[in-house]
Write a structure and sequence with these properties.
single chain, alpha+beta, 6-stranded antiparallel barrel, 21 strands
């Protein structure tokens, strides 16, 4: 057998193994709302029936949720435990647990060019599998919830074929670990997935325990700027966040931050843009001391802010 055939066989074995592992854990959703019936996909990730999907799939769902159907023909009703539109993630719970859960991975370990497999129910076709590669990492997906908007960070871009109905389905690596939740078809040959990582696991945990995600508020706005070369070499980072606005009486204002300050670090993490700040503003940050380092008139200044709840 020639090397090309060997490679194709190896590729096929990986994809078929991932499909066989994940298909029993991926549901086809029928969602009832005032607008009628909608459809999507979802992934069971705990033994006791918690299910992960996209928030937009279950937006406006009726009180009785809808129906989840699995590839073995099992049907069960589900309830919406909680949804976070600003992360485009929702946690459901099926009423008849016992479905084998998928294993969650860590999207932070992905590399461009890595094989990924999408499992879902596009166009009402249950149990569909497509494969491709990670085309890009670090993309941002704009989402909005009422008056609030933000960017979902580190979105995974893939060329695995996605179609309507794939949203909420699994994006898996070659070890059958779910590393993303397919969320959008961005164009021909282009799909996006919300990553499974430390941040989204925290969001999932809050949705499971309280049904909602609390976010903190610091009260700053700004833009990314390059740092002076000597300072960049010393810190090991080339950019910071220059503050263009500090809301009066906000946590940032009370901490002594000023317009013109360049934020370099917060909570022990480098700050290079607004999204780095937003990434820190999840529930545990509310009321906690947040150490911030800024560059002010050529000097490094340390302050402590206490983020407040975002109403």
């Amino acid at each position: 057998m020639d090397p090309e055939t060997d490679a194709l066989d190896a590729y096929s074995r990986v994809v078929s193994t991932v499909a066989a592992t994940l298909l029993p854990s991926v549901a086809s959703l029928t969602v009832r709302s005032r607008r009628g019936e909608g459809a999507g996909s979802a992934v069971v990730y705990t033994q006791d029936g918690f299910v992960l999907t996209s928030a937009h799939v279950v937006a406006g769902a009726d009180a009785d949720g809808g129906v989840a159907e699995f590839t073995d023909g099992t049907q069960t009703r589900f309830d919406v435990v909680g949804a976070d539109p600003l992360a485009d993630l929702a946690v459901l719970r099926i009423r008849e647990p016992g479905v084998p859960p998928a294993t969650l991975g860590n999207a932070d370990d992905l590399r461009i060019g890595q094989l990924v497999v999408a499992v879902g129910n596009p166009l009402g076709l249950a149990g569909s599998v497509t494969a491709g590669v990670v085309s890009a990492l670090g993309r941002s997906l704009p989402v909005r919830d009422g008056r609030h908007s933000r960017l979902i960070d580190d979105v995974i871009q893939t060329d695995a074929a996605l179609n309507p109905g794939n949203s909420g389905g699994a994006l898996a690596d070659s070890a059958s670990r779910v590393v993303g939740i397919n969320t959008a078809v961005a164009g021909i040959g282009l799909g996006l997935a919300v990553p499974i990582n430390g941040t989204t696991r925290l969001i999932m945990s809050e949705l499971m325990s309280t049904g909602r995600v609390r976010r903190a508020w610091l009260g700053v706005a700004g833009a990314t700027v390059p740092l002076p070369q000597p300072l960049a070499a010393r810190l090991g980072q080339s950019k910071g966040l220059r503050l263009a606005e500090v809301v009066p009486e906000s946590p940032a204002g009370q901490a002594g931050l000023y317009v013109g300050d360049v934020m370099l670090a917060a909570g022990g993490r480098p700050i290079t843009g607004v999204q780095d700040v937003l990434r820190l503003m999840l529930g545990p940050a509310i009321g906690a001391r947040l150490a911030i380092t800024v560059l002010r008139k050529g000097a490094l200044v340390d302050v402590v802010a206490i983020p407040a709840p975002l109403e």
